[in-house]
């Protein structure tokens, strides 16, 4: 039916010059123009290549007609809504575009739809019509009992409809009308407002809610597709309603997860995995101040913590471990942008996340409790656990940056100091034990190499990009975490760690010198220690630094303004040191 209608439109438009000579503003023309705009937009979602080619041709022909009419007296121009987005429609119908396949065509179309700026009756009608079709297809595809009931064409059209609704939804909201300040479009039926129909929620809210619920669909193609659509094709103008809808559905998950009878159900695990991946992708898309403002109402720190709590106590299976990997990746993404995101209760939430993620790391030579029940899946569980260990370390290497350890509430000052010291001792020793878990641990002493330098959030890579950090070894990540913990907790950390500089294992000693190097490169100050402690700890640092005679790139020390005792390393090149303090470092002023 659609192809036939497009052919009729194409034939009628052949005589566009005669049509363009009409100067009166005919109401029928306004209605026809709007219906054609709706027809064109809906037809762009077709899963048939020939139909897509025909609709782009029809758009080009009709656009030429509109431009001819545009040369008529001003009274005739108000009906040509297509021209408001004429540049976009022109690119859609461009003859320079080569049809290489439906996937490439749809990707291009959705990118162009996101660039549209001017809403119209035809555009809003198209969104509603596609939404109605999407609803029915979503039900058919997600609830199908067997693969034979769902054709590839149905899946393709559902995918196209999903992307269309996400991409075009940005200009179909009342906020868009407010931004344009045009009275002519103020009476349109906006998708973020409740219509006169029987629905109790706006169409946009309903679309986002149902889309997020599909993340838990048993059909893997459906949930993966809808996550990809929401992650990459929703325009920034819809970030705020998307975040709100996601938070609402996550509240349902976390509330239900508190009930022991339903905790760990497969659909909950699936939803946690997909929603955490979606949230990570959206966080990574937050670039402009307006994007960050859209996320300001979302309590990201609390959401990350709730994900971790949800998984606490869930039996270890390959599926649950993969969800933990996704949570680690989400925590890493949020922690990297914590300054821009202006997180609430940041230190408290990061301390709690440290505790949970720390517990997910497998203890050396300690089989997991659930392993004996898995039989042939033991190898898979072991492999996924190794991936989880690395994901945990990567997230903690970012999470612990400038993180003061914080015991629970309700402690006296003396108890707090003692508990903080115990926490530091526990974490520090645990991460030290990871240094010999990889065969490349013998390379621990290479400080200042382009893969071992410390660069704040972007660790172990001179460029700080994902490719560089992906190569970081377990020992590299452990040393970064150790450096962060000592730097942010120098008041309790030095007394618990300086003896490690004399450890019987030379690799451990060398790693600890790297830790000292890193905290000095961070500019750690001792202003929270007494003057006597400053002198004592400074001398101990010098002694430990000079004790290890190989692989420490020290060119010189410089005194700082805090009691003239803070110092930093000025060179990243490898050098050999020997002898006492006088040979390796200048003495601090007394």
Describe the structure.
This protein has 590 residues and is mainly α. Helix content is 58%, strand content 0%. It has three domains: 2-116; 235-399; 431-590, no CATH class. The chain has helices at 2-12, 16-19, 27-43, 49-69, 86-92, 102-113, 121-142, 152-168, 174-180, 203-213, 220-232, 239-257, 266-284, 289-294, 300-311, 318-336, 338-341, 346-360, 378-399, 413-432, 466-469, 474-488, 490-497, 506-521, 531-547, 581-584. α4 runs antiparallel to α5 and α13 (266-284) packs parallel to α16 (318-336). The protein starts with a helix and ends in a 6-residue tail after the last helix.
User: How many strands appear in the DSSP assignment?
Assistant: 0
Beta-strand percentage? under 5%
Q: What count of structural domains?
A: 3
What's the shape? elongated
Order of helices and strands: HHHHHHHHHHHHHHHHHHHHHHHHHH
Q: Termini separation (Å)?
A: 91 Å
Give unreliable regions as ranges. Answer: 15-20, 366-372, 439-470, 548-590
DSSP helix count? Answer: 26
Helical coverage, percent range: 55-70%
Arithmetic mean of pLDDT: 78
Judged by helices, strands and strand pairing, the structural class is: mainly alpha
Main beta-sheet strand count, sense and barrel state: none
Radius of gyration: 31 Å
Summed up:
By secondary structure, the protein is mostly helical. The chain is 58% helix and 0% strand.
């Amino acid at each position: 039916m659609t192809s036939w209608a497009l052919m009729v439109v194409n034939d009628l438009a052949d005589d566009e010059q005669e049509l363009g000579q009409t100067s009166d503003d005919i109401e029928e023309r306004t209605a026809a123009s709007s219906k054609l705009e709706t027809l064109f937009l809906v037809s762009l979602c077709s899963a048939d290549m020939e139909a897509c080619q025909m609709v782009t041709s029809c758009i080009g022909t009709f656009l030429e007609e509109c431009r001819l009419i545009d040369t008529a007296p001003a009274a005739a121009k108000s009906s040509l809504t297509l021209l408001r987005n004429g540049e976009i429609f022109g690119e859609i119908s461009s003859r320079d575009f080569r049809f290489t396949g439906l996937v490439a065509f749809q990707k291009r179309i959705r990118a162009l739809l996101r660039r549209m700026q001017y809403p119209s009756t035809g555009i809003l009608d198209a969104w509603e019509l596609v939404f109605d079709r999407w609803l029915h297809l979503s039900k058919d595809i997600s609830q199908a009992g067997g693969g034979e009931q769902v054709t590839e064409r149905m899946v393709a059209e559902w995918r196209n409809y999903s992307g269309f609704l996400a991409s075009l939804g940005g200009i179909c909201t009342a906020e868009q009308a407010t931004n344009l300040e045009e009275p002519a479009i103020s009476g349109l039926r906006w998708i973020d407002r409740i219509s006169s129909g029987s629905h109790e929620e706006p169409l946009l809210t309903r679309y986002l809610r149902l889309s997020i619920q599909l993340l838990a669909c048993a059909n893997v193609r459906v949930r993966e597709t809808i996550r990809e659509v929401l992650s990459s094709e929703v325009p920034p103008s819809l970030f705020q309603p998307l975040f709100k809808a996601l938070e609402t559905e996550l509240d349902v998950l976390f509330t239900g997860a508190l009930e022991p009878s339903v905790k760990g159900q497969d659909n909950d695990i699936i939803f946690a995995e997909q929603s955490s991946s979606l949230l990570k992708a959206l966080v990574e898309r937050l670039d402009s101040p307006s994007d960050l403002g859209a996320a300001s109402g979302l309590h990201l720190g609390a959401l990350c913590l709730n994900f971790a709590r949800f998984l606490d106590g869930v039996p270890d299976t390959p599926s649950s471990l993969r969800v933990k990997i996704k949570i680690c990746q989400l925590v890493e993404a949020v922690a990297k942008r914590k300054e821009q995101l202006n997180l609430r209760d940041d230190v408290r939430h990061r301390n709690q996340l440290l505790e949970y993620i720390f517990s997910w790391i497998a203890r050396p030579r300690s089989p997991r409790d659930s392993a004996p029940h898995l039989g042939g899946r033991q190898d898979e569980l072991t492999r996924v656990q190794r991936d989880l260990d690395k994901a945990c370390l990567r997230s903690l290497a970012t999470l612990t940056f400038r993180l003061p350890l914080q015991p629970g509430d309700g402690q006296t000052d003396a108890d707090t100091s003692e508990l903080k010291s115990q926490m530091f001792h526990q974490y520090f020793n645990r991460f030290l034990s990871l240094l010999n878990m990889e065969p490349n641990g013998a390379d621990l002493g290479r400080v200042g190499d382009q893969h071992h330098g410390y660069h704040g959030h972007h660790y172990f890579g001179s460029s700080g990009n994902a490719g560089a950090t992906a190569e970081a070894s377990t020992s590299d990540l452990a040393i970064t975490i150790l450096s962060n913990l000592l730097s942010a907790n120098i008041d309790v950390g030095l007394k618990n760690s300086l003896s490690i500089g004399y450890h019987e294992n030379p690799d451990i000693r060398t790693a600890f010198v790297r830790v000292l190097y890193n905290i000095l490169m961070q500019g750690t100050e001792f202003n929270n220690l007494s003057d006597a402690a400053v002198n004592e700890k400074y001398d101990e640092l010098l002694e430990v630094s000079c004790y290890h005679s190989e692989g420490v790139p020290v060119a010189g020390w410089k005194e700082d303004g805090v009691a003239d005792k803070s110092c930093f390393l000025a060179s990243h090149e490898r050098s050999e040191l020997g002898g006492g303090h006088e040979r390796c470092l200048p003495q601090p002023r007394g």
